[in-house]
Amino acid sequence: MQTQRETTAEARALRDTTEQSIAGIARFLQDTFSQRVVAFIAGIEDPKQVGKWCREQNAPRFDSEMRLRTAYQIFKFIESAENLHTARAWMIGMNPQLDDDSPLQAIASERYKEVMTAARAYLQGDL
Predict the structure, then answer these.
(1) Nearest to 26 by CA among 88, 84, 87, 69
(2) pLDDT of residue 126
(3) Which of 11, 73, 82, 108 would bridge 17 by S-S if both were Cys, CB 3.0 to 4.6 A apart?
(4) Three-state DSSP state, 1
(5) How far is 64 from 44, CA to CA, in rounded Å?
(6) What percent of the chain has pLDDT over 90?
(7) Among 27, 77, 82, residue whose Cα is nearest residue 56
(8) How confident is the model at residue 63 (pLDDT cuts 50, 70, 90)?
(9) What phi, psi does 113 have (nearest 5°)?
């Protein structure tokens, strides 16, 4: 059963993700994790492409945008219920619910539902 805190955090994260441009999302993720990590999440080889997205010189492919929006939404979900430091650590750390992959690795592999399930479990105190 979802708690009120979790539902509110999840709703805020969804609204924030929906309202953000992909350039804003790319900038946030680049500032939080690095250009190279954002390229990894997006599934591209050239990290400089991320800078172009941030400056709105071009836009990512659909699959890359999906990965970035998912990473942003889940980050904001954890951050909203916890804090920036905890959200960043959770996103890059090994997670037993994801076969010891980090949430970022799982998102890069398009395991979106698994990562959201792990995030919900974390906020419920199950991990």
Answers:
(1) 69
(2) 75
(3) 73
(4) coil
(5) 8
(6) 87
(7) 27
(8) very high
(9) -65, -40
Q: Is the dihedral of CA 64, 99, 94, 88 positive or negative?
A: positive
Q: Can you give the pTM of this predicted structure?
A: 0.91
User: Can you tell me the distance from the alpha carbon of 118 to that of 124, in angstroms, rounded to the nearest whole number?
Assistant: 10
Whole-angstrom Cα distance, residue 9 to residue 26? Answer: 21
The encoded tokens of residue 80 equal: 């909203």
Residue 9 has a pLDDT of 85
Identify whether the C-beta of residue 46 lies closer than 8 Å to the C-beta of residue 39. yes
The C-alpha atoms of residue 57 and residue 95 are separated, in whole angstroms, by 35
Q: How many residues does the chain have?
A: 127
Compute the distance between CA of residue 27 and CA of residue 12 in angstroms, rounded to an integer.
Answer: 19
